[in-house]
Amino acid sequence: MLDQIKSTFTLLKQQKPLILCLTNYVTMDFMANSLLALGAAPLMSESQDEIEELVSISQAVYINIGTLNDVFMDRARCAAKIANSIGKPLILDPVGAGASKLRTSAAMELFSYAQVIRGNASEIISLAGANGSTKGVESSDPVTKAINSAHRLAKSQKTVVISGPEDFITNGVDDKILPFGSNLMPLITGMGCTMTAVLSAFVACLSNHFQAAVQATTYFGLCGQLAHEHVKGPATFKETFINNLFDPDWISMSKAVTRV
């Protein structure tokens, strides 16, 4: 697995895929800097007038409903339809699905256009039409409770990632559980949003979305796990984490994978 991740990491640096991000204001900076650290090129837009042009030149489209309103949904809906029509992969982060009817309905609508979805357990449960227990954008449900929901969502030829203390990935046929990460990660605003951004960059380089999700989730978790070993708290963790995305310690990562 680590050799495959190294290969994709090299591709990212070489290809510098353009990731169009229609996302929230709260975590935009963190996502952009993390994509840059990987070697990808982030592009954010707030004008629907340019969406068709931007989708056409991007290698992946990432939609995150964190700060949701009617203007955003019009832009996201437009981007999703264009991405589907020209074969650009669409990655969805259904932030806060289950917290309100507006968020849940928006996530369900955009889900129909997406090929890859990444959310916490409560979001995935709500997206599948069940009742997840959420605290706003935070999950109150364990990952294991959302696995059946992820399988239902994946039946429509989707790849679904549930993030948590252990991450679960499925495409409806293959499943993967990954144990990497740090308990400091939930203390940083935008860590989940950034995980989906990193996932989008891997999807931009790999045609197999399940493999892209497994590689991205593994790499993201290992960068966090190794950052934890060198910091005392959330503020320095964020800085070290981005540094790890940029310049990974492959030897330490190999040791961490071997220990599992």
From TrEMBL:
GO terms for molecular function: ATP binding; hydroxyethylthiazole kinase activity; magnesium ion binding. Pathway: Cofactor biosynthesis; thiamine diphosphate biosynthesis; 4-methyl-5-(2-phosphoethyl)-thiazole from 5-(2-hydroxyethyl)-4-methylthiazole: step 1/1. Pfam families: HK. Its cofactor is Mg(2+). Its EC number is 2.7.1.50. It catalyses: 5-(2-hydroxyethyl)-4-methylthiazole + ATP = 4-methyl-5-(2-phosphooxyethyl)-thiazole + ADP + H(+). GO terms for biological process: thiamine biosynthetic process; thiamine diphosphate biosynthetic process. The keyword Kinase applies. Gene3D superfamilies: 3.40.1190.20. Substrate binds at residues 44, 190. Transmembrane segments: none annotated. InterPro entries: Hyethyz_kinase, Ribokinase-like. Keywords: ATP-binding, Kinase, Magnesium, Metal-binding, Nucleotide-binding, Thiamine biosynthesis, Transferase. ATP binds at residues 118, 163. Catalyzes the phosphorylation of the hydroxyl group of 4-methyl-5-beta-hydroxyethylthiazole (THZ). HAMAP family: Thz_kinase. Belongs to the Thz kinase family. This is Hydroxyethylthiazole kinase. The lineage of its organism: Bacteria, Pseudomonadati, Pseudomonadota, Gammaproteobacteria, Legionellales.
